[in-house]
Write a structure and sequence with these properties.
6 copies of one chain form a homohexamer. By secondary structure, the first copy, chain A, is an alpha/beta fold. The first copy, chain A, has one domain (2-317): UDP-N-acetylmuramoyl-L-alanine:D-glutamate ligase (3-Layer(aba) Sandwich), CATH 3.40.1190. In chain A, 35% of the residues lie in helices and 24% in strands. The first copy, chain A, has 11 helices and 14 strands. Chain A has helices at 35-46, 60-70, 122-125, 136-139, 142-157, 175-185, 196-203, 210-220, 267-281, 286-300, 312-319, and strands spanning 2-7, 11-15, 27-33, 50-57, 79-82, 88-93, 102-106, 128-134, 161-165, 191-194, 225-232, 238-246, 251-252, 257-260. In chain A, strands 1, 4, 5, 8, 9, 10, 11, 12, 13 and 14 form a 10-stranded mixed beta sheet that branches. Chain A has a 4-stranded mixed beta sheet with strand order 3-2-6-7. In chain A, helix 1 crosses helix 9 (267-281), helix 9 packs antiparallel against helix 10 (286-300) and helix 10 packs across helix 11 (312-319). The termini of chain A are far apart. Chains in contact: A-B, A-C, A-D, A-E, B-C, B-D, B-F, C-E, C-F, D-E, D-F, E-F. Chains A and C meet through strand 7 of A and strand 14 of C.
Chain lengths: 328, 328, 328, 328, 328, 328
């Protein structure tokens, strides 16, 4: 039995070097990413038995992606190599104030978007302590919409804790499509991870601050926990980061971290991974879960690639850190 | 009026570094290529007024490709930026004996494959001394098949010399599909460029050597000139290269070049470019056209990227070259 | 007829990697730059029909520079390839506080500095809506001094709007030489682009702020518009940027941008390009011209190389920008 | 139960770029290698359930090595992270005729060399179809000598097929030390993999060719199979490669491959991996085992790093290969 | 006679690129560093006749290190190439807030740690104006402890000014070991360079600020000068730097520099180098020595590698600097 | 007293990466070279006390070149930093058959070409066992012509062995200019190093093979030794290399080496260095001198940059080498 299974798309990420614009590129750095995959990677790096369920195209590109995933310790036995579809890609150019970073997705016809009912027997597979998926997966295709719903249902039936990150992507679907699809799925969700903005766009819920937003979400749905992350864009290269969680009774806060951003991609996913890890290993202590989530997230944002190359010892060390000097 | 217009697809080429396999890649070198585009680039580099007609997707990736093409001097006013489709890609890993180089195409849904009748008014556009297209373009989609046929017809009507490179690609269509499509198009073709193997696969014409193949092609169709290129794979990194041409009366031969391959991609296209350049500028002297074609081709095969960065002076210098010493 | 022609020197720029000092260098990144060339590039990138007039040495280095210019869409038909002189170079090492960035010029005997009267028939060539030149060109040699004067005269006679960037370079000439040469040329200038410091050094005009400087310049000369750019060096890697313009009646201000510098070189030239673009395309609306100038300048300062790889859509998007988040 | 377990040392390999000598280096490419590890990697890449047993130092360097191993699909549950010892390293500079490639080992005090009796319960662990070790492991330290002996004993007792690669390293021990240690261990060995030279140095067995050497080895010891690999150094960058096997009854030959070497390190280990794979999956068909071994070995020698990034499909494709053209 | 001799260890430094974590590394940038070596390099770069005394292993790695040292102008005639021991290494990953930079030392069994009495005749060798060593050298091994003591004694006897940087490294020895070893050595020291923290850890001397610490040090020991450096970690990438000196009569202060850190390693050593240079060349003017020390230190922190690639002219220019603009 | 002093120009070499043509370059690898400098470097690397006499421009570029020279162990006390002139450069693109490698010189106005009589007191300076110069130095300018003549005179008077490499460069002067200048200088020369082709172009001496050429040279001039190097260009990347020497009595031959070229630049200079080294250290044994010269030359041709990074031990090892296997 796995500690966590996540379900979603992986893409090859191609990013320019040295703040080059895509139009002037001559070289791309290659890495791999994907919201749910990043959560599987993060929990594996922290020591959980973690698997990622998905489809990849047969051949060298699918093999490349599988290798990069194996490198992190994620179990790859739930990956199905398929003759259908292609490898999704996304292109990144990193910004500096006042130019924002930019992402171009090239994920049409990806293997997972062509998922068929026979690909996964969710009832059998989803025997796991936590099942995690985000709002990106159902947005990929009708097949993915169906599969997300079914998988959530079976995970729940099998007794898993269901974790869901809203992750609204306007390039994939409209707010109303997202709303229509996601609201029914919320019935299966135990832990909702979101931002103020996504909450407004998808659930039409607003509040004067994130405490109020969390309260309203909790009122509207039957979550066990709502976690809301908060990023302040001081500049393109300097951000503040924190998050809260709410269990219907109490708010769990954490300090605000000041970041010198190296690579913000996957920062939210590392929060999810750290939160789930803390929740599972610290006896459902939500306060610790939030702290692990934030610390793991901010460490991620200082290493290149979507994946988090920090380990548990470093998370603990950051939680106790007193100085920013070189560590010898 | 242009000296030459070519019509076809451009792709971003992503190749690994230092003979790395794709499965172990961490970096991709980016360049741009495409059979007909390479011919436009080659002729522009040699000094002709050369244009490339195609569709590219709007946005940074289309802009990137346009920039790389402008860098070579090709006229880009016949490129249409389209909201339809994506940027085609291909991945390359370079081999060394006994491992062959490998190409993975990712060109589904490319903008040009979604071409519509209203995109180009061929009758108006195709006022040019030479019109060049290859067997890849009609293989991309039904729309491209139609457009290739029409464009050839109008180019011919407008008085252009029509040049056609067979370029059979088995990943795109079957031999019988190719045959069915291409044979009728041969009526418009003045200069056919092919290999022994492609001739057999597409036209079912075999001979005991390329002289005989050329003769049979000439007998079957109404070409003015048939040119057949010949590559010998001594090893993956050492090849011999030559070509002949036949005008129904006489065979035009050239020496055989011994190559230390840097990048063989686009080698055939550079032959076409050099041949067309020689034919146009040397008073239809086929012997010189063959020599220019071969020299330009082998120079191309010693520089990275599909494009040919040699210039006319270097072609002439190679034709007169006596030694392989450093040129100071 | 071109929208804009600029006249000046291009150099190959060789910059060290990763903040390395030149004395420890093992690799140089290569790009191309030059004040007036950068303006031609910027206006071409924004969509104007833009040409750059200059001399380049025959051979591979001249070809390299031409290629990099063609890549941006600038028309290169006004470049003359010459057997006289060499390719100018400049070396850059990027600083970090408190170490300033450093430039070493190696432009002696450049082809353009050996310009002869017969090289360009300015009267014929300078049929253009805008003619742009800076104070660098006349400082290069006596021949360039003569050519600058003549070109300004003919441009004016031909009805062009004349734009002039003071751009004082103390390595090229003394303040008094500059003063003696430039003051008479001001008669031809419609749009003067300068800084407070350059104004003081070249025209001996000081004011208590740039408004007063602009007023005094306008009083002393017969410009239509004076634009003054202002850079605040918060640190070596963080700058503020803004500019004003004055038409003798009204001051046109813009917001102050906070920059995380990637590459400040060519920032002033991109202001000129954006200003000229806005002036030409927005019906001589100076307020919009200033805004385009600043936005285009600050975008430039976030991409490597002297050239500006932003496009018009991005300028407009920046003018409307509300957040510094990733753009997906 | 694993298909194969191997036991030995891993080192970080640091190699210079572009044929640079170590004395002029400014950059090192990092990879991971080790004789027995390479065999585990090779068999995993071919599809076997493969594990590598060893000690790595706690901390980031041990983690780095583990990650690179996981990337290949090798099971890492038999790695023990230890507070004893350091990460072994080796430095490589690649040669070109007549300069040979050079390796500098820096493996003193490596964690595995400080192995203790309590580290591994071989009797429990070594439940596997094949157990593979080479002559390097016992040469590392007295502890390793003891552990190698014990592990062979228990593997044999547990019914594993024992595979042993002689791999004599003169930097680690003298010929007589090797002889004294290895001869008794041969009692446990089923499949011996060696070269003519190593056989002479370690076992003092010579023959007029490798057939005779194989016969003498078979006579002297109780192996089931002897495989002898043969490399001909045509030049530093061009080698020929083949191997034979002998089962006491029959010699199994294969063609001689002509190689354009990219990275010869790990070539022998890939032969072992391919041989073992073939032997296990093709019903103990030794002829096929030799063919798989050679094909897998020569593919390895065309990719950078000690690890083999080819897959089973490519091995089969090479066995059927007719041409050296690009594979599209 | 040398102006300065320093004595200590050199290591090859391997640092990841682009803020990569070590666990995800694929490339290491190579440079050379070591506390006392960095001081020799700094003083040589500033124009002093400077030598570094040490042992390096025979072979290519020792040669590589020697070459990198020669590149800076340090005299290498006091390096002894030894068959004993290995080349020490250290691995660096650069941090960004809130992740600190991290160093992993791999210096066990380094050649200098195996120093023997017969290696250097200190009495003969140490004829120099200044002799510099730090608290790292005696911490390396018992042999180094003995050699440090002896070398200090003979340097003093020979009339050298003795400079000592406390440089406490907890990975090498405990505070009490350091205390026990270093306190007796202080008798030989003329110039002590330290930080508040090191003073407390090694000498158990605390004060309410660094003035008081300096006074207490001066009272306890018989130094001629105490210099205390102060680094404020605003963030991982932004630091403030300054230092004071005290001669028992007067405090010598300097401005506080705001740094954008490129590479903080060797920053303290460059202070020592600048201080010693100023002291020797400016007639023992301590105020100037402090100013040179700080300016040279902060310049170092803006160039990659431990070595300081600034020169005397740049130090003087920084002392007079008024702006952070590009220097053309 | 030095073992050898050489006199000539140094240039920064900028070479493209990965066989790129200059017209497509985006990066230049930087190194330093120059005929006589390369000889000083080679002899220093082999262990001689070697100095290089020249002028370099003041500033960072001159400092960069000095640093790279110091890295090799060459004494730099005879370098004069001058306010006159610039740093010479040369650009390299590496070829592959049939495209030859190409060099573009940019050495006009180099500091050494502006040499003045007062720059060096040759009589004082040239106290050395060997003085080496090549035909490039007098070709640089009239000043260099004068200085070469004077330096040869004083070196001879001071009792040095004078070594001269003809090194004819047609870009610098015509054959008749070279002849007129060089023939009188031959009176001072003890060891002449040349090729058959240079001998014909400069001295108008031809022979049916290099033995006859050596005899004729010896007859015409009063050399002690004539050495003639021979390179066969099998292909651009594969060469054969050997050399002979003749002392008027006997021919000294060596084997012919088959090379896989990495970087042929400086190959001839390394022959000179090895020859001089052997002659000086092996008791004027010309046979050994030739062998050292060839072995050192071919090793050089397998490492990047003009400088030779091999050492004496490797030369000796090559002379005894029996196999091309990896050296562990």
């Amino acid at each position: 039995m796995f500690d966590i299974i996540s379900f979603g798309e992986a893409m090859i990420r191609l990013s320019t070097t040295d703040y080059k614009r895509i139009e002037q590129a001559d070289l791309f750095k290659l890495s791999v990413g994907g919201g749910e995959l990043n959560v599987a990677v993060g929990t594996a790096r922290l020591g959980l038995k973690s698997a990622w369920m998905s489809l990849l195209p047969e051949g060298l590109l699918g093999g490349l992606v599988r290798n990069k995933i194996m490198e992190t310790g994620v179990d790859t036995s739930l990956i199905k190599f398929s003759g259908r579809g292609r490898m999704g890609l996304y292109f990144v150019e990193f910004g500096a104030s006042p130019r924002r970073s930019k992402v171009i997705y090239d994920r049409k016809l990806s293997s997972i978007s062509l998922i068929e009912e026979s690909d996964f027997n969710f009832k059998e597979i989803l025997k796991t302590r936590v099942y995690h998926v985000s709002g990106i997966t159902p947005a990929l295709s009708e097949g993915c919409k169906r599969a997300t719903g079914e998988s959530l249902k079976y995970a729940k039936e099998n007794g898993a804790i269901v974790s869901f990150d809203v992750n609204y992507r306007e390039k994939l679907w409209s707010e109303s499509e997202a709303q229509k699809c996601l609201i029914p799925l919320m019935d299966y969700v135990d832990i909702l991870i979101t931002t103020e903005e996504d909450t407004e766009r998808v659930f039409k819920i607003k509040g004067k601050n994130y405490y109020e937003v969390a309260e309203k979400l909790m009122k509207e749905f039957s979550f066990k926990i709502v976690a809301i992350t908060l990023r302040e864009n001081i500049s393109v290269l300097r951000n503040n980061w924190t998050a809260i969680a709410y269990d219907g009774h109490k708010f769990y806060n954490d300090k605000k971290y000041e970041l010198e951003l190296v690579d913000r991609f996957g920062g939210g996913d590392s929060f999810s991974a750290g939160f789930i890890f803390g929740y599972l290993t610290e006896n459902k202590d939500i306060e610790k879960a939030v702290k692990y989530g934030n610390a793991f997230s901010v460490l991620k944002q200082t290493n290149p690639t979507d994946f988090n190359w920090a380990n548990l010892e470093e998370v603990k060390s950051l939680l106790a850190q007193k100085s920013l000097r070189v560590q010898r």
